[in-house]
Amino acid sequence: MTTPLAPQTNHPVSEPFGRLGDGSEVRRWHLENGGTRLSVLSYGGIVQTVEVPDRHGHRVNVSLGFGDLDGYLGSDGFLGALVGRYGNRIAHGRFALDGDRHFLSVSGGPHALHGGAQGFDRRNWRAHGFARDGDVGLVLTLTSPDGDMGFPGTLRVRVVYTLTSCGDWRIDYEAVTDRPTVVNLTNHVYWNLAGESAGSALDHELSIAASRITPVTPGLIPTGRLAPVAGTPFDFRTPRRVGERISAADPQLRHAGGYDHNWVFDKGRTVAPQPVASLRDPGSGRVLRIATTEPGVQFYSGNSLRGTRPGSGGRAYGPGDGLCLETQHHPDSPNQPAFPSTVLRPGETYRSTTVHSFTAE
Q1: Which residues is 156 bridged to in the sheet?
Q2: CA distance 57 to 346
Q3: Cα 60 from chain centroid (whole Å)
Q4: Contact at 8 Å (CB) between 95 and 182?
Q5: What gap in Å lies between CA 300 and CA 87, rounded to an integer?
């Protein structure tokens, strides 16, 4: 009997996308598998486009981004970026570890946000594509030296973007260090399942498998408490329209000008990815489902989008035009001993996985 051949998988291809001020070349990689198309930049590990079909099979880009490198260089919105060394905020850019105080680069106000002024979103990563066992993907690597943006330890990072044969986009993060440090990696895609240029995404329906959030101060730093979502505009345990209660007279919503908070998953941190959230656009029928190993997600409703430069589809983005679901550890964990630890020590390996699954109804 003849053994059937495995289906052929297209290998990722790359092309020049521009040059940075130091002359280094930025490459754009194109991946396609299982009905999903992904375009990724070596600069910032940025996911420029995610193309998926609607209920009629019509495929459009559902990720906010720019059509050229200058758009990303001139933006501070982290559109599509790979975020590190520490995603989210560390209060006042300070933390103590093993008795040593560390002072970080601050950005976006008095706190350290998304790794500082020159975080991983501002680095040109090494990248190479692969195709194997029905999957296609991209391996991104970066070495962050000891003292980079104030963080201790030389950190060697490896991130794999994989498109599976069924069209899922999987992210696997790994990192090792030669000195105790803190790590919290995530991705900052802004989703609009109606299409990148469709306007407001506040009619999307969201569900999050979380009974609590970490409430914040006016500076968006966690208070250290865990607050129940029951009876509040933060209850997405069953699908709710994002804009339904976004203007409610709630102090937490006033602090952020909308949603920009960390939800604490009921599942906790897990070894294998578990389902935690879904986002649905009623008009197109597109549905995004997210599974992760992480203990929380920062849901951001794009409150600060003030587009002065057109996006990749020619339309500048305004508040609510894109929604972020950043799977991660909780904000300010290095200063919050009750939160799950983000400490990484020599001899250990940081690992995190998030899977994005796309369907249409």
Answers
A1: 143, 176
A2: 48
A3: 20
A4: yes
A5: 13
DSSP string, 75-126: --S-TT-EE-SB-SEEGGGEEEETTEEEEPPP-SSSSEETTSTT-GGGSB-E
With tokens 């850019």, the residue in question is: 93
- Torsion sign across C-alpha atoms 152, 158, 164, 169: positive
Is 326 noted as a catalytic residue in this protein?
yes
Q: Which long-range contacts (CB under 8 A, 24 or more apart) does 169-173 make?
A: 169/36, 169/38, 169/50, 169/355, 169/356, 169/358, 170/353, 170/354, 170/355, 170/356, 171/353, 171/354, 171/355, 171/356, 172/351, 172/352, 172/353, 173/350, 173/351, 173/352, 173/353
SS3 71: helix
Is the pLDDT at 220 greater than 70? The verdict is yes
Q: In what order do the strands lie in the sheet with 36-41?
A: 13-19, 25-33, 36-41, 47-53, 59-61
Show the tokens assigned to 183: 């790590």
Q: Which of 205, 261, 326, 330 is catalytic?
A: 326
- Residue whose entry in the numeric block shows the structure tokens 């203007």: 247
Q: pTM for this one?
A: 0.96
Query: In 3D, which of 253, 251, 252 has the Cα closest to residue 243?
Result: 253
The token duo for 153 is 């330890």
The token pair at 115 is 């790794």
- Digit-coded pLDDT (tens) for 91-149: 999 999 999 999 999 997 899 999 999 999 999 999 999 999 999 999 999 999 999 99
pLDDT at 6 over 60: no
Q: Of the listed 188, 204, 261, 356, which one is catalytic? A: 188
Please tell me the distance from the alpha carbon of residue 52 to that of residue 280, in angstroms, as a whole number. Answer: 13
Between CA 283 and CA 313, with CA 168 as vertex, the angle to 5 degrees is 50
Q: Which of the 8 DSSP states describes residue 221?
A: -
pLDDT in tens, 133-155: 999 999 999 999 999 999 999 99
296-300 and 210-214 beta bridge pairing: unpaired
